[in-house]
Amino acid sequence: xxxxxxxxxxxxxxxxxxxxxxxxxxxxxxxxxxxxxxxxxxxxxxxxxxxxxxxxxxxxxxxxxxxxxxxxxxxxxxxxxxxxxxxxxxxxxxxxxxxxxxxx
Length: 104
Ligand SMILES: [Zn+2]
What we know:
The chain has 104 residues and is of the alpha+beta class. It has a single domain (7-102), classed as Arc Repressor Mutant, subunit A (Orthogonal Bundle), CATH 1.10.10. Helix content is 62%, strand content 13%. The chain has helices at residues 7-24, 29-38, 45-57, 80-102; strands at residues 27-28, 61-66, 73-78. It has a three-stranded antiparallel β-sheet. It is globular and about 50 Å long. The termini are far apart. The model has no long low-confidence stretch (mean pLDDT 93). Residues 17, 21, 35, 39 line the site of zinc ion.
């Protein structure tokens, strides 16, 4: 990924960001690339799509394809398992935030 520096820590945050938006509603890949860019993550399709596929394979996301041929677009949203994972992670993030940011 282009955010190659410190990626070990950043990829987890990116996954949570993806999951957050997948719980809020449907998104498609290019939208997510832009969204992450606005948050300062430079991630290309070669990194994002394998990540989305892995999250889908593991049962956190589901997708549907709209349109056909070159106009086909895959939309993603969270599964029940994805929503449960986000709920657990949100509690952990809150806890970490309190120590990491507020505790300073
Ligand atoms: Zn966002």
